[in-house]
């Protein structure tokens, strides 16, 4: 293909922009109908404690759109946030996730903690807090097995509102994890000002552990600081044994990533947990304890 002239490149650029804009609009305008049509579903990704086995799972939303095919949450969640649809999606996630959790808590004697991702715009809505409490009661859930993952943008936007939300959920008995910590606008003072139980180190650092000596040092520092603050540390995006061994030795309490499991359907969860418990890497000392 001949090299594009300047003008053609400009036209290509505008076309690409228009296409991208069209897709955004299509996604934004399909969300409401997708909720009505049940096009969303949840997958669950295990979190593994090196000496306890699977201690929790993270609920992750998926969308199989009739018109657009499979769309990643990394694409549609930001669009939903920007177009004011996120709270409808989050309510769907909570409603369906809590229902599954109800069954999980009834059927398992070895209880798992289930984590849900929340957006900034969710926690700024006072009605949402009310909704969460209603859903907790309706599904008769034990709140100590529920965690909410939030990112730093939530507390940057409006610190006191975010802190009120977090305190309210903790009063009810749920716990809070700081997701994707160490990238974005994370400030170290949030670690002391936001009383989160868990910190999730961003995948970026795990990916770069053996690629960048500097990133490894920052990861080490985040881990040792979190240990000093008595937080539970979860490393996400762990894809191989080398990363797992390093992070385990560094003191991470929980490991999450493709090395152990991709996110799976609720129906596959039990078999998947059994498979992980039997992996030679996992030295399960006592099956019943859950951190
Ligand atoms: P996140 O909460 O940080 O979730 C981690 C993402 O990394 C997930 O992508 C997960 O599938 C992926 N992942 C896990 N292990 C590995 C690994 O070993 N390697 C690699 N390369 N990736 C791994 P996913 O499911 O596509 O979700 C992307 C983001 O979308 C999430 O990031 C979260 O911010 C958002 N999201 C997902 N579900 C929900 C939801 O129900 N509500 C909200 N508000 N956001 C959600
Ligand atoms: Mg998360
Ligand atoms: Mg994350
Ligand atoms: Mg993320």
From TrEMBL:
The keyword Cytoplasm does not apply. Residues 24-277 form the EAL domain. Keywords: Coiled coil, Membrane, Transmembrane, Transmembrane helix. This is EAL domain-containing protein. The chain holds residues 410 to 700 of 701 of the full protein.
């Amino acid at each position: 293909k001949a090299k594009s002239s300047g003008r053609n490149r400009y036209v290509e650029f505008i076309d690409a922009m228009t296409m991208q804009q069209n897709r955004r609009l299509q996604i934004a305008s399909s969300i409401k109908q997708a909720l009505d049509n049940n096009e969303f579903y949840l997958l669950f990704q295990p979190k593994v404690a090196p000496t306890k086995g699977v201690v929790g799972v993270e609920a992750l939303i998926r969308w199989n759109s009739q018109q657009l095919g499979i769309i990643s949450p990394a694409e549609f969640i930001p669009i939903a946030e920007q177009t004011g649809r996120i709270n409808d999606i989050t309510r769907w996630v909570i409603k369906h996730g809590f229902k599954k959790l109800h069954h999980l808590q009834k059927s398992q004697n070895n209880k798992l903690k289930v984590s849900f991702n929340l957006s900034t715009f969710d926690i700024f809505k006072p009605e949402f807090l009310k909704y969460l409490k209603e859903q907790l009661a309706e599904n008769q859930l034990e709140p100590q097995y529920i965690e909410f993952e939030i990112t730093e943008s939530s507390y940057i936007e409006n610190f006191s509102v975010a802190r009120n939300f977090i305190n309210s959920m903790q009063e009810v008995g749920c716990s809070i994890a700081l997701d994707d910590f160490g990238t974005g606008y994370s400030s170290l003072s949030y670690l002391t000002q936001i009383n989160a139980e868990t910190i999730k180190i961003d995948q970026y650092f795990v990916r770069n552990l053996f690629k960048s000596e500097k990133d490894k040092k920052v990861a080490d520092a985040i881990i040792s600081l979190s240990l000093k603050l008595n937080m539970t540390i979860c490393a996400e995006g762990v894809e191989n044994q080398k990363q797992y061994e390093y992070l385990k030795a560094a003191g991470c309490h929980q490991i999450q990533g493709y090395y152990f499991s991709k996110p799976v359907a609720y129906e596959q969860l039990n078999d998947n947990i059994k498979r992980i418990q039997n992996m030679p890497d996992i030295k399960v000392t006592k099956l019943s304890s859950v951190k």
